[in-house]
Amino acid sequence: MADRRWLARIATPLLAASALAVVIVAGDLPLRAHRELDSGRSRAAVALRDHVIPFQQWGTKLFTLPHLESAYDHVYYLTEAIPGDQHDAMVADLEQALRENDEVDLFLLAHSNRFIYWASEVPPELREKLRLVYNTGCGDAVQGPSWLALGARAYVGHPSSHSLSPIFYVYFLRRWVRGWSLGDAVSAANGEAHRRVTWFGLDDPAGDPRAVLVGRADLWVGGEAEK
Amino acid sequence: MSLLARTRTVVGTAGRWMWAENLALVIAGLVVAAGEVFAIRWIYLASFGTRRRISPSLDLPLGHAALWAFGLIGMVLSMSATYRLLRYGRLWLAVPLVLLVCLPLLVIFVGSLYASLIVAAIL
Questions:
Q1: B3/chain A closest Cα distance in angstroms
Q2: Which of A31, A124, B91, B106 has the fewest CB atoms found within 10 Å of its own CB?
Q3: If we measure between CA atoms, which residue out of A161, A183, A30 comes closest to residue B119?
Q4: pLDDT, tens digit, for every residue of A130-143?
């Protein structure tokens, strides 16, 4: 029986360690701040979740809000209950964020969308402070030039018709809010997301989680250009 | 023998067998996993379902509370179940149960705690 006791004592923590290894490999490694985020410039984030099932809306908020609050002075988080019901709130929040902060990032956590029309209702002189626009929408990478023309300094979007963008988004946001440069964060998130998809045999051009970046790759969450 | 009496006999025999084979903790772990699924489901429906039942300020704390409470209880139960099966159980039963039930349960419960830490931006 002594052998069984030792088997149990050794195997139990090993099993727990194996479970932790599975979780870490399937998820993402703990990350430390890449640099000091206090750059002396005020910044705000506006995030909009579209009308999807409650589980997705809750999960998006659970993941997104704490990260944004850790890196921005002001965060405006909106969730659509029915399509279009946050139009006035988003335009008002975006306008207020642009008016009261030096830089504003916009996170469009939605299926294929045309929220660019909503943003275009904000006065052009304010839109100059729009910095990064990230859009999870499938195929919405094509909006890049339009967002840059609207005033954004960088745009990250997904070219695939079935973008699997939540996989990219998890890796991207965690790096962006910890001070990675936009180019590095996008590149790392593309690599991590593509690797996970390949593991599960879902490597398909029509269902590609990778995003493309247009505009300034040297931006970072704390400022205009990488220090 | 009536249907009720037969059912009692079957359930009683199954219960005694499970107790004798040290399966009580495994069953408890499965119950906690099911409880976590129901709790999480209740919270997201209360947050973003057809009718909001909780304050928006509770959307995140309640979720994390569920992940931590069920995660911790479930982790202790699954580790205890693993220990007990390997220590006292018959190996032909213990080994597959540990690999097919206890390990997945541990992944779920450790995953709950890890997800809460990752989501809460601590890590």
A1: 41
A2: A124
A3: A30
A4: 999 999 999 999 99
